[in-house]
Write a structure and sequence with these properties.
By secondary structure, the protein is α+β, with helices and mostly antiparallel strands. It has helices spanning 3-10, 30-39, 50-59, 108-125, 159-165, 168-178, 191-204, 211-221, 260-263, 265-279, 295-302, 333-339, 344-355; strands at residues 21-24, 62-70, 73-85, 89-94, 104-105, 129-132, 143-144, 148-154, 182-187, 225-232, 235-245, 248-256, 284-291, 307-309, 313-316. The protein is built from 13 helices and 15 strands. The protein is globular, with a radius of gyration of 21 Å.
Length: 359
């Protein structure tokens, strides 16, 4: 039991004798759900109900949102998406297209009830497995996989202190970017972001999401979804979409054109996100998920961030082993190499059909 739960029980708001009921989410629950997520210590940006609309509207997948409550008060929530693909399997995931998920709860009983209900649902749906993308370990039975880590760091209100906290070599890259006559601006539209992002993911051999996805994210999350674009002499060089949640910022979808490395545009871009976030009162910079041993993993470590393991939790239903839907899987290597050589227009045409099933 965490300190927040103890305080709630002492205040009389949570009774140990009360039975917790786990039930499906209804649209009338949205205000209470989001208010709970805003206060629950274990909740993340990806637990917000807006993701339900994004997953259903953009990707066409079914969602199953569950509420744990007692005496009419919410004690926990879990957001689940059902991803069915002939290529990548059949899974119930919390949360798909997100780096964090699992049950967000203020009591152990609510967490257990939600996890048990999620497994029951997975069995009823006949999926291969249930995946809970926990940021913190779960006591539920099942398997974990040490593939991903996250990078989070506290920010100072003082910009110079944040600059000094960046290791010397990386700090030099940021300063070069600052001297390269680059211009960083906030975008209302997604066109420049999509140009930079689609170029980057094609070069990595990864299918791109549809441009519509980014439009819907902006529409659903408003000012909590911000696009910062870096230009050189009017040309888009790099761009990133960041999510804001409480006092945290999470740069989530970013990329750069062929010029980005030359002008140190990505280095400047992330510094600008950090600097502007501090101006908004943000105190935690979340660099997000990376696979151990990849280029993005090294890039984030170079900024002075230490990796924190992500204990993703798997419970097998029809599958016999924990899935390995990762670009590091050897069976995808030929596909990745071929994808890198596709013309950008072709990658942007075919990519959305594949990426919608990756979850």
């Amino acid at each position: 039991m965490n300190s927040d739960t103890s305080a709630l029980r002492k205040s009389g708001l949570i009774s140990p004798a009360t039975v917790v009921n786990v039930r499906p989410f209804s649209e009338d629950d949205a205000p209470k759900w989001d208010a709970f997520v805003a206060e629950c210590p274990g909740a993340t940006f990806f637990h917000r109900t807006g993701w339900k609309r994004v997953i259903e509207e953009v990707f066409g997948h079914a969602t199953h949102y569950l509420v744990a409550e007692a005496d009419g008060a919410i004690e926990g929530v879990i957001a689940l998406g059902h991803i069915r693909s002939r290529l990548f399997g059949n899974a119930l995931i919390s949360c798909p297209f997100a780096v964090y998920g699992g049950a967000a709860a203020v009591t152990d009983r609510a967490r257990r009830g939600l996890e048990e209900a999620a497994l029951d649902l997975a069995k009823n749906l006949g999926v291969d497995y249930l995946e809970l993308r926990n940021r913190h370990p779960s006591s539920a039975a099942g398997a974990t996989k040490d593939l991903y880590v996250t990078f989070r760091k506290a920010l100072s209100p003082d910009h110079e202190e944040n600059m000094r906290a960046i290791p010397r070599k990386q700090r030099a890259m940021v300063r070069k970017g600052l001297k390269s006559d680059l211009v960083a601006t906030i975008d209302d539209g997604v066109d420049r972001l999509f140009r930079a992002y689609s170029t980057s993911v094609r070069n990595l051999g990864t299918p791109v999401f549809a441009k519509r996805y980014f439009r819907v994210l902006k529409d659903v999350f408003g000012d909590d979804c911000e696009i910062l674009t870096v230009t050189k002499d009017g040309r888009t060089v790099s761009s990133v979409m960041s999510f804001y949640f409480r006092d945290e910022v999470l740069p989530y979808y970013g990329g750069g054109t062929e010029e980005a490395r030359k002008w140190k545009a990505n280095d400047l871009m992330y510094w600008e996100v950090m600097r502007r976030a501090v101006e908004r009162g943000v105190r935690t910079f979340d660099y997000g998920r990376s696979k151990v041993g990849t280029g993005s993993y090294s890039f984030k470590k170079n900024w002075g961030f230490e990796p924190e393991p992500l204990p993703y939790h798997y419970q097998l239903v029809k599958a016999r082993e924990v899935p390995n839907v990762s670009p590091l899987n050897p069976k995808y290597q030929l596909f990745i190499k071929a994808w890198k050589h596709l013309p950008l227009w072709a990658a942007n045409t075919v990519g959305p059909w594949l990426s919608r099933n990756l979850g």
